[in-house]
Design goal:
42% of the residues lie in helices and 17% in strands. The chain contains 7 helices and 7 strands, in the order βαβααββαβαββαα. It binds flavin mononucleotide.
């Protein structure tokens, strides 16, 4: 089993990385593989709503020059996800949102029926709004949301400050333990022959009047 931890900060080894690493440590201790994937610093375009990924059932984005499709290949082979972001103007980081829009629109199948959690790092404010924003990718994708003892946030401007947020770091460790427990429970369910829920043919009702 493997958990893919996505670092959506432009700072590869900053505060978000520090928090993700703390959660990853507990997952590794539980005998589950982890990988921290940095989305990178080079610009990531937003979804252009071309629809070609779905029309042609590509399972990837037609734009192949950034980290989106690389991440999707990894997502396909992963059993759980933790997505981390710094708070930028009381929101998840803009480039991460562009990245996630395209990952989830074109590669939804790689996330469905798997557990996911979001974590955020901020200096002071905007953490809960950013968490809500990130959790919405999971809750429109048939995923299981994994929680912790507190909302998944750490506070600080530097990795050293984040290390001093003892409650935040504990929240990350608890999240890691909970993620490992959920993954092992899913695996036990699969071994006991519990099937995935039956899927209905999709209804699409647009609110146009
Ligand atoms: C463009 C920008 C906007 C930010 N906006 C906020 C904010 O709204 N609220 C906040 O508490 N911190 C804000 N910060 C601070 C970062 O969220 C904080 O330093 C975070 O821990 C950095 O994580 P990182 O090292 O993983 O990038 C902002 C930082 C940047 C660069």
């Amino acid at each position: 089993m493997k958990v893919l931890l996505i670092n959506g900060s432009p700072r590869e080894k900053g505060c978000t990385f520090t928090a993700l690493s703390e959660a990853a440590g507990e997952i590794t201790k539980a005998g589950i593989e982890t990988e921290i994937f940095h989305i990178g610093k080079t610009p990531i375009r937003g979804c252009t709503a071309c629809g070609l990924c779905r029309k042609n059932d590509l399972g990837k984005c037609v734009y192949d020059n950034d980290s989106v499709n690389t991440a999707l290949l990894k997502a396909k082979e992963s059993d759980g996800f933790i997505i981390g972001s710094p708070v930028h103007y009381a929101s998840a980081a803009g480039m991460l949102i562009s990245f996630l829009d395209r990952c989830f629109y074109s590669g939804n199948r790689y996330f469905a029926y798997k557990p996911g959690a979001a974590i955020v790092s901020c200096r002071r404010g905007g953490s809960t709004a950013s968490l809500d924003q990130l959790n919405k990718y999971f809750t429109i994708s048939n995923m299981l949301l994994v929680s912790s003892q507190y909302w998944n946030m750490v506070h600080g401007n530097t990795p050293e400050e984040v290390q001093q947020d003892l409650e935040g770091m504990q929240t990350m460790r608890t999240l890691g333990k909970n993620m490992a427990w959920v993954l092992k429970s899913i695996e036990a369910g699969q071994k006991a022959g519990i099937p995935l829920p039956e899927k209905e043919a999709p209804q699409r009702t647009n609110f146009i009047r």
